[in-house]
Amino acid sequence: MNKKSSGSGTVPTGRQTAVRVKTAKRRSVSSARWLERQLNDPYVAEAKKRGYRSRAAFKLLQLDEKFGFLKRGQRVVDLGAAPGGWAQVAVEKGAAKVIGIDLLEVEPVPGATIIQMDFLAPDAPDRLKELLGGEADIVMSDMAANTTGHPPTDHLRIMGLAEAAYAYAEEVLAPGGVFICKLFKGGAEKELSDALKRNFATVRNAKPAASRADSAESYIVAIGFRGGEQAADKA
To answer: Which sign does the torsion angle of CA 222, 167, 181, 137 carry?
Structure first.
């Protein structure tokens, strides 16, 4: 486990020399372009410098810088936790408990408990609740389905994950809690947004600077959970 540097802030510091990657026998043009983008991405370099698992850590840091939802002593659930950058940030910000889940194996994150399991499996929500041992202050989801290259299909697939994440959040969030979720633009997000606006005091959409400009991803941040429609129906 790399130790974090003393760097602070939510944007990369310093300058780096551009790297060019050529195609080779076993490397396609597309893979060469991907590798070149990674090698020249200032957030990738900054993540390595600070000991974060991935550049995605800066997305959460920038969302928190904008909305101020991460506080000491919180209980946090991290859906789609691999490779562990968001869990690292939550621990770094002083969370009392961080519970994560992902289909992929995640190298242990000190201060967090991360299980390898499909969040959509029938017993996954109960397993997370058992590990959490009470209500959550934050449920955050950076889950994304494998892309197909067909934007409408990819949009619907990630919306399915977002809706599943919110259904879980409704069950475990404490009053005043926070829900953060990755979305892909495409039109079907309005229904989720409307539900969040009914159940949270504040709902905002944001695209952090660390999210690549050519990516369709954005994040929805809902703050001030009121108890949810299910709770209202039971009242």
So the answer is: positive
